[in-house]
Amino acid sequence: MNRKKAREYAFILLFEYKFQPEEIERILSDFIEEYNPGDQQEYIEKVVRGVVSNKEGIDKKIDELSQGWKAERISNVSLAVLRLAAFEIEFCDDIPAVVSVNEAVSLAKKYDGDEAAPFVNGILGKLSGMTGVKK
């Protein structure tokens, strides 16, 4: 499994987390058992657990940057994409911000439609510009 596919699976797990937050460890272990992500398992676990652990702070940043759109008003798909990419930008020094943004925009297009992509791009562009890291 490559990183792009692992990121897509992490996004799907985070989308599922929205509906079953108390079950995230079971969801994650079931996924690992079924899909055997191999060398990407560490990445998937890191980002999923990282988003869950930092959800409040990540959502606060998304709220601040989305100008008038609170996290609870953003589509569940775009929110999962934004949380994943925001975690990567803020906490994963080995992933360039531009990669996180580009991959998030691709996921938004694929799962939430073309109209979601500019919104996701705008929020993450602001976030990556704020942090000043990994450009």
Helix content: over 70%
Characterize the overall form.
globular
* Low-pLDDT segments, ≥5 res: 131-135
* CATH class assignment: Mainly Alpha
SS-derived structural category: mainly alpha
Classified in CATH, the superfamily is NusB-like
* Mean pLDDT across residues: 92
Distance between the termini: 25 Å
The biggest beta sheet, please? none
Radius of gyration: 14 Å
Number of separate helices? 6
- CATH architecture name: Orthogonal Bundle
| H and E order | HHHHHH
Note the beta-strand portion: under 5%
Q: In the residues, how many domains can be counted? A: 1
Count of β-strands: 0
Summarize the structure.
The protein has 135 residues and is mostly helical. It contains 6 helices and no strands.
Protein model, in words:
This protein has 135 residues and is an all-alpha fold. The chain is 76% helix and 0% strand. The protein has a single domain, classed as NusB-like (N-utilizing Substance Protein B Homolog, Chain A), CATH 1.10.940.10. Helix 3 crosses helix 4. It is globular, with a radius of gyration of 14 Å. The C terminus is likely disordered.
